[in-house]
Amino acid sequence: MKNQYIVEHCSPTLAGLKTGSLFSVLGESKEKLNRDLRCLNKILRGKGLRAIPLRYTDNYVLIYLYRLENLKKDLMRPETRSILREKGYDCSDPDMCVVQLVKHIENDEVFPHEIGLFLGYPEKDVKGFMKSPEEGVLCVGYWKVYGDVEKAERTFRIFNRCTEVYCRALKHGKSLEQLIVAA
Fold first, then answer.
1. Its pTM surpasses 0.90
2. Residues of the domain holding 112
């Protein structure tokens, strides 16, 4: 798993601007990927982050990289708790919530749209997407926006700028560990 790829897909999370990020790794064996994840987590844990596989297929693995403290705070918000409880989640323990997310990904017929809450997306936008992925969309960036367009567009610009800065820093010799903002 290349650091460049992680930075391209997870910079806002590495910088502490976003709760979590998703990325896929293609064509690696499960054994190699698990070794790579163990090495990555040695770096991440000291900075308050984790990376876990959410789904393995024959062709790829979907990885969730997240900040545990941010997820804890997100899960304390009443609207987030309400949405997740309706979907059968126990919000009292963030680790258990992530385990339940994995089970939903494995077992649900449709990909669990509530995953946006694990990524730090606004509840209104997650609810709008859950209701209809196509109807009522006001703009699209890192997620589909159904609510506050100005705030979302501002956030998208910040995330894009963060990714540009991180990619440039990595290219100029900064290590992944140096780029991660500690919790």
1. yes
2. 3-179
